[in-house]
Amino acid sequence: MATRFLGDTAVLTGRTLRHVTRSLDTIITTAITPIAMLLLFVYVFGGAIDTGTVSYVNYLLPGILVITIASGIAYTALRLFTDMQGGIFERFQSMPIARSSVLWAHVLTSLAANLISLALVVLAALLIGFRSGAGVPAWLAVAGILILFILALTWIAVIPGLTAKSVDGASAFSYPLIFLPFISSAFVPTDTMPGPLRAFAEHQPVTSIVNAIRDLLAQRPVGADVWTALAWCAGILVVAYLFAGLTYRRRIS
User: Fold this and answer.
1) Residues with Cβ within 8 Å of residue 72, at least 6 apart in sequence
2) Where are the beta strands (DSSP E) in 73-228?
3) How many domains does the chain have?
4) What residues have CB less than 8 Å from 31, skipping those under 6 apart?
5) Quick check: 179 pLDDT over 60?
6) Residue 241 above 80 pLDDT?
7) Which residues in 81-236 belong to E strands, given as ranges?
């Protein structure tokens, strides 16, 4: 059964990856738009924001990486919605394939597409001055946090992808996720915010994720933010996975 599941998932992942490479708007939105935001904030707003001795591009990059993921996973919901409307799921049900491999193919495609987008954003940051003396273990830790975050948000995206009634409905869920980094430590230090807003910013998942990545890349001692970030990502992932699985079983039953 495990071999069959892995084989079916690999074949279906190849199918969804081909759809991504043929969709120019997907590539533009998931890679070029975050790079444009990076350039905008560094060269237009960066001079007005005080980040102490840390260059603004170094301070900003973790937040841009989070936004890259939040905007990229909208296409997971869109691809699932398209397959549901096109009757692809019904066709797969009539074939001798593992049912869960259909969802996992979309999830792995989201992971691959987002990792490519993140790599392009990091490359752009390097070209405009981002520097880090972090070693391989720190970079692997950053990659681990980002992968966990991608998986958590992707399983959230599966739910509207299966239940939406329109294309706009399938992608609308991502708007709050894209907006959330703006009310965090992603772009400015939280101590510059008014009381209630600061309290929210300091206790939402994006701030702990951004702070953890920032500390790792800056070679600072990792504090509670790393464990808080991992707890947020793991908790969201488990809950989203359970709800997505339940939604999928109801949808195809």
Assistant:
1) 29, 30, 110, 113, 114, 117, 150
2) none
3) 1
4) 68, 116, 117, 120, 121
5) yes
6) yes
7) none
7 compared with 76, residue with greater pLDDT? 76
197 is in which domain, residue-wise?
2-252
CA 147-181-54 angle, to 5 degrees, is 90
- Of 76, 232, 208, 210, the closest CA to residue 152 belongs to 232
Question: What DSSP designation does 48 have?
Answer: G
Amino acid at 238: V
What is the spatial distance between Cα 68 and Cα 150, in angstroms, rounded to a whole number?
10
Do 213 and 128 touch, CB atoms closer than 8 A? no
The Cα 33–Cα 124 span in angstroms is 12
pLDDT in tens, 151-171: 999 999 999 988 888 887 877
The length of the chain in residues reads: 253
Per-residue confidence (pLDDT) for residue 51, from 0 to 100: 76
Query: Does 1 score more than 60 pLDDT?
Result: no
Closest CA to 141 of 68, 225, 206: 225
Q: Are 25 and 74 in contact (CB under 8 A)?
A: no
Q: Name the nearest CA neighbour of 66 among 241, 244, 237, 229.
A: 229
pTM for the model stands at: 0.91
- Number of other CB atoms surrounding residue 177 within 10 Å: 19
